[in-house]
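To: structure subgroup
Subject: Chain for Friday's discussion

All,

I'm putting the inputs and outputs inline so they're searchable in the archive.
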Amino acid sequence: MRNIKAKIDKAKCTGCGDCVSVCPVDAIEIVDGKAEIDEPKCIGCAICANKCPEGAISIAESGVAPTVGSGTYPSAPRYGMGMGTGGGRGMGGGRGGGRGMGKGRGAGPSGFCVCPSCGAKLPHTRGVPCTSQKCPKCGSTMIRG
């Protein structure tokens, strides 16, 4: 497991506190006008580094590199094809309903055009929107019903 931590360049830090306000684990505090990171608390999320207006925070791997088999990997970030088991399910709510772009409002090729004023019904003609027709009884614009 990688041990990613935030590091502060004290020469660049102005002590503005922007990093303190965004740290999700409260691992940063201002001491003597400069930001300091409580390394055991730091989760290496990089939110503070992205927020710092001075670019004083960097994210780096720290500690001892893991040993695999008989060799030791160098202490540098490694990127590659992970074998995670997350399943890619995301956090979307799945509330689309499968109705497509029209949100399921179409009544299909059959059905009726209905007058909202008097309730008169006419058979729907495919390809002709109901809203383009007038009620034969009262003259109101028809709607799909």
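Points worth raising on Friday:
The chain has two helices and nine strands.
Strands lie at 4-8, 28-31, 34-37, 57-61, 67-68, 71-72, 112-114, 121-123, 143-144.

D.
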